[in-house]
Amino acid sequence: MIRETGDIKVSRLKAHHVSDHIKGKGWKPNTVRSVMATVNACLNHCEREGWIEKNPLRGKVHLPQVERRDIIMSASDRKQLIDSASEPFKSALLFLEGTGCRPQEARLARVEKCDLAKGVIMVPNKTRKKTGDRERPVFLSSTMIELCWTLIGNRTEGWLLLNKWGNPWKKPAFQRLMERLCGMLSIEDGACLYSLRHGFLSEAINQKNMNPALVAIQAGHTDVKMLLKHYLHHDADAMRKALDGE
Question: pTM of the entire structure?
Fold first, then answer.
């Protein structure tokens, strides 16, 4: 952001500096919100540590409304995507599609948090401030247990998912690889990693008739409200079958 601000003191930062930094980037509202939130979080951290007197942007930067990801990738496109991916990205996509966990949870999943005998892995909990739980369980199907055994090998600690250099996945590279592969395959609808989570959750309640309460637990939701609002009615074919009594 130094291009827009110049070499100035933090105390002289203005809201327009952030706006100037974002202008012309072509970012989607969710990305803009993430960038703004990151800048604000950094300044708040510096204030808490006593490095600056106060955050000069507090209350002055308007965060854009989050766009819900209502358009998700079709099952056929997800299959084509995974079939076309090369390792180790392919295994990462399989893990996301097979567990329904958030991309960040998958990136931060660790070997020592896996209990494959019980078929569960503990991941950082996004709702920890609300629930008080620092971790949450992600339950594994038999297929996912086998995948985890393959990913872990003889390791006893470290990140579960590793890139081709043996390092943990970084968020930008993770998403960029997804977008690049979708572009190569001309997949436009739901060309983001979250589509695999949406696909898992939608199919669980619309196609597999899983108990919504259990699906909510797998998703890491504190209740079924989010699930019912954004996933249950997503599948028109499932609704038609339900109405026809099939």
Answer: 0.71
